[in-house]
Structures are given as C-alpha cells and as structure tokens.
Amino acid sequence: MVYPVAIDAVAREGGDIVIVSQDQQVCAGDYERQLGIDLSHYLAEVTRDRDALPVLLSPTSQDLDPRLTAFCHENDIALLCGARVGCTGTPDAAVPRGRTVPRAHRRRH
Question: What predicted TM-score, i.e. pTM, was given to this entire model?
Fold first, then answer.
C-alpha cells in the first residue's frame, strides 16, 4: 500500500508538522471509515520517534467516526475537523497533551 510509504517519506523531510488529510464522515462507507483509521495508524507510527507534530485533517467533516477520534486522542494526534478549523491553522486547543505547536506555526492573536 502506498500510504505508509508516502507518509513516512513526508515525515523524513524533517518538518515541524506531519499532516495527513482525509475527509472523514460517519455517513461514509466502511472503506472510507477504515481508511481514516489506517491513515491515523500510519501517522502515529511515523511520528512516534520524531519531534514532528502529527495532525489528521478532515477539512469538511464535523462528524468523525468515534473510533478515529478515540485513536487520535489516545495517540496524541492533533485532530482538526470542519472547514473553519481545518483551513485556518492549528489552534492551540487542538494540540494533544504533551505536545506544543512549533513557534513558527502558532497563530498570531
């Protein structure tokens, strides 16, 4: 499968944030829901021993699969969903516990 290789390649670039984006909705079919969970697993794996902040972005969804939400929370993956949040940057409230938004990526207030 191409996803784990591609996500690992992005993580090896050395950036502050590794973002995986997928529009994930509860009303999506089984394949789409499982793909979101798989992508979050790949993201967790490639960022586990790196300083990069893992982010799962679902720009148009506000009704994520509860299993996906739970996995992201348990694995310290910032989960941004909905067009307004997903397209305006990484708000401090979305950053998982134990992580910080790199200074260059903090929103200016």
Answer: 0.72
In a domain, 104, yes or no: no
The pLDDT tens digits for 40-83 are 999 999 999 898 999 998 876 667 788 888 999 999 999 888 76
Domains identified in the chain, total number = 1
Q: Are 72 and 88 in contact (CB under 8 A)?
A: no
List C-alpha distances in Å: 41 to 74, 88, 109.
Answer: 11, 25, 33
Rg of the chain over Cα atoms, rounded to whole angstroms, equals 13
Residue 102 lies in a domain: no
Gap between the Cα atoms of 91 and 51, Å rounded: 18
What distance in Å separates the CA atoms of residue 46 and residue 7, rounded to the nearest whole number? 7
> Residue 106: inside a domain, yes or no?
no
DSSP string, 54-108: EEEEETT-SS--HHHHHHHHHTT-EEEESHHHHHH---GGGSPTT----GGGSPP
